[in-house]
Amino acid sequence: MEIKNSSSNSNTDFILLGLSSNPQLQTPLFAIFLVMYLITVAGNVLIILVIHSDSRLHTPMYFFLRNLSFMDICFITVIVPKMLVNLLSETKTISYVGCLVQMYFFMALVNTDSYLLASMAIDRLVAICNPFRYEVVMSPKHCLLMLIGSCTISHLHALLRVVLMSHLSFCASRVIKHFFCDTQPVLKLSCSDTSSSQIVVMTETLAVIATPFLCILFSYLRIIITVLRIPSAAGKWKAFSTCGSHLTVVALFYGSAIYVYFRPLSMYSVVKDRVATVMYTVVTPMLNPFIYSLRNKDMKRGLGKLRNIIHS
Fold it and tell me: Which of 92, 196, 216, 273 could form a disulfide with 121 if both were Cys (CB 3.0 to 4.6 A apart)?
């Protein structure tokens, strides 16, 4: 088997196998994912416009939601357009550099999503457990610092991952059994000893992804303890109702992401992992606008105000 060193990697292409190699499924898959992509972009743009147009939504929670919608648009755009092109193309190639660039921006954006979800959990924690200090703790300055910190940590994580990948050598086979350049399927193609890379990736991923996840768990544990102390059932329902949309998104996002990334490379399954990856890369960003608009009275009011502005 021919092994190419890392210096020649930039002159070669990978082949993205996609979701299916069946020619009869290419056109239906193209139509399905095109519709999902357009719904995702339109829905998240609508969320951004609604929050921007309604001054009553200029609060920390909706500041993070607006940025979450923007990140969803960005990271789905990193993946889906290339996948759509490949579904209609016979070559289905992506350059070595293009693969690393796609990997970098995907990881940076999806990790920022993770930290924004944690920031939203902290917002709910302070609002319910310490409402008298809410304006101080969740001030515009602190919210901006949380956003900048989220982006910085996520981009450093992505940079480290891509630097590690760039030093690997690859075998003659360049077929990636996935619909984008994700870490696990690319590592499977390497002829290098990836054990050290896997240890670094697992350790660093655990630190970067588990930190916001544990922050969310801790926040909601505190919230549950506080809410259970509220004497009236109406008061408990009112407190929990402000968290419903966020909890739904967290469950969808982290459920599939943990399944994909927190397992050894030896347990990687092409079919199962592609389905799970579709859940958090395409389905969750598409559902976010519906979850937040259908389960949230403030967003419904904002949608009505935006509609009146458009019609006037």
Answer: 216
Query: How far from chain centre, in Å, is Cα 171?
Result: 30
The model's pTM is 0.85
Residue 217 token pair: 């768990």
Task: Name the nearest CA neighbour of 127 among 119, 116, 135.
Answer: 135
Our separate counts of H helices and E strands in the chain read: 12, 5
What value does the mean pLDDT take over residues 249-268? 70
- Contact between 242 and 127 (Cβ < 8 Å): yes
| The token pair that represents 110 in the structure block | 């999806």
Residue with tokens 């559902």: 287
Task: Report the distance separating Cα 82 and Cα 178, nearest Å.
Answer: 12
CA 35 → CA 28, 40, 84, distances in Å?
11, 9, 11
Count CA within 13 A, CB hemisphere, residue 24. Answer: 0
* Mean predicted confidence (pLDDT) in 255-277: 66
Contact criterion met (CB below 8 Å) for 32 and 197: no
The burial class, CB within 10 Å (0-12 / 13-18 / 19+), for 221 is: exposed
Q: Taking the CB of residue 165, how many other CB atoms lie within 10 A of it?
A: 22
CA distance 233 to 76: 40
